[in-house]
Amino acid sequence: MFERLFPRRPKRPDPLPQPDSQLALGALLVRIAFADNVVELEEFAAIDRILAATFGLGPLEAAKLRALCTDLERQAADPDEFTRILRAEVPYGERKALAHAMWQVVMADGERDDLEEATLHEIEAALDLTPQDSAAARAVALGTSD
Fold first, then answer.
1. Cystine design at 119: which of 5, 35, 69, 137 (Cβ 3.0–4.6 Å)?
2. Crossing angle for the helix pair 92-106 and 41-55, to the nearest 10 degrees
3. 134: left (phi over 0), alpha (psi -120 to 50) or beta
4. Separation in Å, CA 105 to CA 5, 35, 52, 140, 145
5. Taking the mean position of all CA atoms in its chain, how far away is CA 32?
6. How confident is the model over 54-97, as pLDDT tens digits?
7. Domains of the chain
8. Phi and psi at residue 67, to the nearest 5°
9. In what helix (H) or strand (E) does residue 140 lie, and over which residues does it extend?
10. pTM to 2 decimal places
11. DSSP alpha helices (H): ranges in 14-113?
12. Distance separating alpha carbons of residues 97 and 22, to the nearest angstrom
């Protein structure tokens, strides 16, 4: 009876934080994993490992950060905001290392996927990485570097 008189309102989720370089990186890693619309557990595990290693987090904190980054990426009004943040806040040498981390997500399930690779190439270009640095990161990830 009271349900009809006083229906429950859906709980409003807490507002998402403004992205910083940490959240921007996580959101881009998530974007790569979701590029083919199939996310494997290995991809989430790779993202968690990257976030943990990059930011000195434990496994639980890294998983929570990934979940927040997933929400941010899914609700981003301007997805290019993440690359703008990284270009502004992260020196070029560290952005090259981010490309290698992104390739780890692409290769996490042991298979190359054209959609994931295309998304990664778009991100590398938006991060202003040179084609040579992008190729070097790919070569390391694929085990074809000299």
1. 35
2. 160
3. alpha
4. 50, 11, 14, 13, 18
5. 6
6. 999 999 999 999 999 999 999 887 779 999 999 999 999 999 99
7. 18-142 (1.10.3680.10)
8. -65, -40
9. helix 131-142
10. 0.86
11. 21-34, 41-55, 59-75, 81-89, 92-106
12. 14
